[in-house]
Amino acid sequence: MTEPLVWKDQARIDSGKPATHAAVIGVGHYPHLLGGGGPTTDLNGGLGQLTSPPESAYAVARWLLDEFNNPDTPLASLSLLVSAPQSTTFSHPQLAAPVTPVSADSRNVVQALRDWIALGDINEQNLMLFFFCGHGVARGLEGLTLLLRDYGQVRAMPMEGAIDFAAMQRGMARCAASQQCFFVDACRTVTDIARNTTASGQLVIQDDIHRPFESDWNYAVLFSTVEGEAAYGRRDKPSFYTEELIRGLNGGAANNRSADGRWRVSTGDLNASIHRGLSLRGPKIKNPAVRLVEFEFHLPKNAPRIPVTVFCDPRSDTELADLSCWRAGEEISRRGPAPNEWRTELPTGVYDFKAQIAARNGQRAGEIVVPPYRDFMIQVPK
């Protein structure tokens, strides 16, 4: 494979009709950071190697090919760039053969993103999807630099191996596509790497305060953490953020408020779903930050399953209680006494939730379960 574009619908592109174009980047191997195997840059900020980004990028790419659904703007192109310690391949039934993704270094990434922007310029109704997983650094609360595979390769200018994401996102006002989603799974820690220099990475597109098109600029930037904080991945698995992103896209963030009753995912509901999912991952996981315009961009192919949490009031009763879920008089599921709250997933609908401690009973009857999540606290009278 010699180009970042791993899949495309050339007929849709040539038609000029509205379409979706996706760019997916996962940077795990940094030869010039700690443990990278190459000459280590002095400006490393204590950063080392990551195993989650390649897996996260592959998970998002598979989801796009399998599950993305927007009849008005069907997927027309997917670019995939990855940096891993060893060469890896990406396989999928929609690909003629397994591909080796292009290396996620600055030269390849900048060119791939410019090509992606050019595809977006074909039609103002296009939808642009951007996903990045890897190291990110910040000078302050506004800027964000995304480090690529070759960060630190040029001793005199380490930032040649990075892109200025904040500038790129501002510059996307100049892209004709009127709907743009950016999913950034990277640390946003304020570090000397960025703080002690005015360099902030390569510019992908020049920013401009004026949008030279008739259409509105609808954009959403969903970060994996708040400003000044670290993001967390897992060894050789997709990151927590990536898992919650996909969970939300698969229906956890869906709504059926439209008159036709179809389930749709909007940028605001997706943020709420990710926020909720990460909040359950433990105290070290910071809630995500966001900058967005509210718009719908995806219709899940299957009915959503909603995360549900059940516990007792007081919580100390939870470890004594048999918890159960009922629908139309039939028991759906049950959990015996345990110290932690009960977490499960249910289809949308009306349910009764019951708690029993010996001969004492409590319940929440006739509760509506809808995305993005529901919590139920049950009192068991003495």
From TrEMBL:
Gene3D superfamilies: 3.40.50.1460
A GO molecular-function descriptor: cysteine-type endopeptidase activity
Family annotation (Pfam families): Peptidase_C14
GO biological process: proteolysis
Domain Peptidase C14 caspase: 105-253
Identification of the protein by name: Caspase family protein
Organism whose genome encodes this protein: Pseudomarimonas arenosa
